[in-house]
Write a structure and sequence with these properties.
Largest sheet: none
Order of helices and strands: HHHH
Bound molecules: adenosine-5'-triphosphate
Strand content: under 5%
Shape: globular
Distance between the termini: 60 Å
Number of domains: 1
Number of strands: 0
Radius of gyration: 18 Å
Length: about 120
């Protein structure tokens, strides 16, 4: 295996590529606008209700899960479309599996959000 020297410039480039990925998601996937809207709604709400440190940790984890699942889902969709534009049951399965990962993480985020905010909103 080739041994390469550590380079701050290359590490910086990795961050820049990751940022381009987030921009790519926001520009091409309308679902991500919903995630962004909910993220921008939930953070001020959490500050307003002064949620606990433990609740912040859960909230951050589930929000990151949804964003990460959406990014992986989009990466898979784009690579499948690059491999073939044809209708194929295997492509359908891959895309449906990735979509299911987004759904599961979104449901978990919804449950955590409900547990944290519903008692405060009603109480
Ligand atoms: N090439 C294909 N062959 C078979 N089925 C496909 C194919 N492309 C898409 N599908 C089906 O259509 C669904 C939607 O796929 P598409 O690539 O349009 O994603 P999308 O509408 O952008 O989804 P998302 O809402 O997750 O962004 C897939 O989950 C799959 O069931």
């Amino acid at each position: 295996m080739e041994r390469r020297r550590f380079s701050w410039k290359e590490r910086g480039n990795s961050f820049s590529y990751a940022w381009q990925g987030i921009k790519g998601l926001l520009l091409t996937e309308h679902n991500s606008w919903i995630h962004l809207g909910l993220t921008l709604l939930v953070i001020p709400l959490a500050i307003y209700y002064r949620i606990t440190r433990l609740e912040w940790m859960f909230l951050i984890i589930v929000m990151a899960m949804v964003w990460a699942a959406e990014l992986f889902n989009t990466a898979l969709e784009k690579s499948m479309d690059f491999i073939s534009k044809e209708n194929h049951p295997q492509i359908k399965l891959v895309k449906d599996l990735a979509a299911a990962a987004v759904l599961i993480s979104a449901l978990a985020a919804l449950a955590v959000g409900a547990i944290i905010f519903i008692p405060r909103i009603l109480g």
